[in-house]
Design a protein that fits this description.
With about 180 residues, the protein is mostly helical. It contains 9 helices and no strands.
Length: about 180
């Protein structure tokens, strides 16, 4: 439904807000732009909530495993989590380099790297939101989408009584079943 399509876009606020840490120079250098001002205010409010990111992470993680929620919504919750996790590693590396040698990375190079990270994440979010609004799973983000696909439950994971079947015990599909799935 249209409501599910709109709701499936909301989880991307999580990586978008966390990704704003890499857009600091873009926002602070354009404070005459109303979008930059609103972005700075929203980011400040998000960071003002103690453990807000951690709460959002656990909420999305818990809800994405609820089979009563639309699959597109659950898929996007899971993908938003993975996008946010992907942002963690560059921030960690930059922080470690900053502690080891504060002058190791020139400010211009650091700003260029931050801009690249932000725009890469922003492009992934825009792609995901547009795909979701069209009712399609945004499953073309390299590495992240395949990781999400592997975590999403499928019909083959359950027996006729609705009990989960471990991967090792599932019956492999024969060639005819694989062809029918592609149709």
């Amino acid at each position: 439904s249209n409501t599910d399509k709109l709701v499936s876009c909301l989880p991307y606020l999580f990586p978008l807000l966390d990704g704003l840490q890499f857009a600091g120079a873009l926002v602070t250098q354009n404070m005459e732009n109303p979008v930059a001002v609103v972005t700075a205010i929203v980011y400040s409010l998000y960071r003002a909530v103690p453990f807000g990111g951690l709460i959002a992470f656990f909420a999305l993680s818990f809800l994405s495993n609820n089979p009563s929620i639309n699959r597109l919504v659950r898929y996007n919750m899971q993908q938003a989590i993975y996008l946010d996790i992907a942002l963690f590693f560059p921030g960690l590396i930059a922080a470690l380099i900053g502690v080891i040698s504060p002058t190791a990375i020139p400010p211009a190079l650091s700003e260029l790297g931050n801009d690249f990270l932000f725009f890469s994440m922003f492009a992934a979010v825009i792609y995901s939101v547009i795909s979701s609004l069209l009712g399609q799973e945004p499953n073309k983000i390299p590495v992240i989408s395949s990781a999400v696909e592997s975590r999403m439950p499928t019909v083959e994971m359950f027996d006729s009584s609705g009990r989960f079947i471990p991967k090792e015990e599932r019956k492999p599909k024969d060639d005819d079943e694989k062809k029918n799935d592609k149709k």
